[in-house]
Amino acid sequence: MKREVPLFITFFVGTLLIASVFIPPAESWGENFSVYFDIIAVFAFFLGGGNLLRIHLQKVASKRPDWGYSIVTLVAFLVMLAAGLFKLGNPGGISGNLTTAQSWFQILFQNIMSPLGSTMYALLAFFVASASYRAFRAKNRDATILLVAAFIILLGRTPFGTMLTSWIPPQYDLLQVPNLAIWIMSGPNLAGQRAIMIGIGLGIVSMSLRILLGIERTYLGDDR
Amino acid sequence: MTEALVVTGTNLGVVISLALIAGGVIWLLVRSLKGKEVERRVIFGFVLIAVSAPILFPITFHEQISPVVKAVFDKIESLPAGSTVAISFDFDPAMAPEVQPMANAFTRHCFAKGHKVVFLSIWATGQSLLTSTLDTVVRREFPEKRERIDWVNLGYKAGNQGVLNVIVSDLRKMYPTDVNAVPLDSIPMLAEVKAFRDLSLILAVGGGFPGPKEWVLYVGDPGNVPIAAGAAAVTAPQLYPYYPRQLIGILGGIKSAAEYESAMVDKYPQFDSVDKPGLRMMGPQTLAHMVIMMFIIIGNIVFFRSKRMRSQL
Amino acid sequence: MKRSTYIVMAVMALLFAVSWYFKAATYHGNVMSPLVAGFMITLAAFLTLAIISFVYQDNPFYKFAEHLFVGISAAFWMCQSFWSTIVGNLIPRISTGLSKYFGQPYRDEPWNFVYWLPVILGILLLLRLSSKIGWVSRWALAFIVGTTAGLSFIRYLRSDFMEQISSTMVPLLAAGNSGESLLSNITLSATGPFVAMLTNWVIFLGVICGIVYFFFSKEHTGLFGRASRVGIWILMITFGAAFGYTVMGRITLLVGRLTFLYKDWLGLIS
User: Fold this and answer.
1) ipTM of the predicted structure?
2) Which domain holds residue A43?
3) Which of A138, B133, B155, B286 could be cross-linked to A158 through a Cys-Cys bond (beta carbons 3.0 to 4.6 Å apart)?
């Protein structure tokens, strides 16, 4: 029951989805199983929320270090949950659009979640700059190639690159930095990314087969 | 590509920005050559100044459209008026400064050409950001466009690629109603659209998972629908292998958004007065790139100098 | 807490109050009341500054903002998926009463009872929180894994393998766009036939050499080794391009946040 049933479910669902591509009348099976998948995915979000509650409640109950911050997480979670589930402030009522501009859910998103999320990633600008100064060295031939390519892209993606090399005559315009940047992207970058993509693609296909055939079972965990 | 740049903005801003940066870079070079440690917070300060100065004293440029961006612009131009186009908002606030200008420009372009637009999202955060586009672009700039006749908001569905796998062949199975619980069968503009493979074009705006790549894998290739990507800069290079066969064009990062906005103004001068965040951001972007390039150069000068000194000992 | 901490907290509270007052007084929108709008814009600005403060060093303001983000975003994803998929897709197929309550049109279809299957599997998934019968969540997990594997198998094989091989088979000796001989027009014009052919050669050889580099079942010596070497160079250019684009992306995000602070909060620019 613990291993055989899950292995059968995996094989059955996966094979059915593959078959639905080759058998046109079976197309709707694939669609239906995708809808079921989407519904289960929502339960996975609930599981994530439940887990978050459990972990932070345990932290508060046992007064572990920084337990005060867990209260912040719990309060934020419950306030947003109430705003979303009860559609607080929503002019359309229970059947209205959840993200109407006047709804509390949207107001909290715009003024708390949005600035926090975008600033966290914006911080990386500082660290990328610091890394450029401290670690981006032409130590050998490979590193030099990487550095030169990055330099051309950085210059070519700004109007400054155009200003610097706009004097180059049209018959040699590939040597203008913006054009060189475009060429790097659609030539060598494309080739390198394609080589990586083919490798990853083959990896995913073979891993999918291993999972469907029950050779790969790590997702089941152990039996303890 | 050689078209002359049009630089506008306050001269004071340009002078202040360049003077600050030039002075700082010289100081950094001298200090580095003396072998003194430069505190990381000083580097952070440089970045802050390089980005802040052109925001406070705006410098704007006219951008020349590149071929990979032009392909998307031309595709929207070439579709007959009244074609149904989907714009998918698959991003979160962390990507929004880069890709929302693209989504806004696509929306503007589609409406200017008289296309009907299906808005949707396969990221939960996308639906909230879509609300902002509907309020600031659709309702403000195109008040004559009516909901469910000229455009429809389908909203978000959970399930990532599972959603795409269904809508490519049966839209109503996944989206029985629009975001306001109005049945799709009663929406006039979707009478002929039974599945996403019936659409004239899909504009996938995003950058994470699921994003433009999944649109190619689960909708574009199996449904034979033209797809164009508006992608965050981090993921744009990974999409090039799909261009031009599986993706008709790619907008990668804010530079491409600025190029698209420039092309829009060239073709439709009435949009000259609207907010163009892509073009607005290119000033700070340019200065920040220059500062980072200077960091790389100074770092390497110091590296080679110390290497030579070590070999002489 | 130290005295200096209290002083910092008091200064922050004062600044917050001043900002709230001024933002409320200058609010012209109609979405919220001025008092709420002033509070929200000020809160957004202070949270932005709290996160930026991390570049100086880790501090309580950053930790507060970080924990706030975790709580808010977890609830955000839960609510969105509940309303969009549970209310939008599931309820209209399993319950007329609930459909009516949520204002959703009921879909009367013959096979609706099958929709109890994902509900049961979903409940099994939630049982993962139990230490005694948590193992039954594997059944739901197996469904998720099986679906993902089944979907990925065909799509990746087609789009990321076969289509990519096919797109690499490009003409290596092409005539110019206008039909003239290639050798009659050797220019470095970005749109010229010579550059088009050069690009095709780079793509063709670059992909092969890149794949050769990733092939570890044969020792990288001789011709194979040289191809692998070229593969590394191509990959280095690829990573360089990716770095350039990453820098661009991160700077844009910073521009976005600083524009918010200078424009929407401080009103320094129009």
Assistant:
1) 0.93
2) 4-123
3) B286
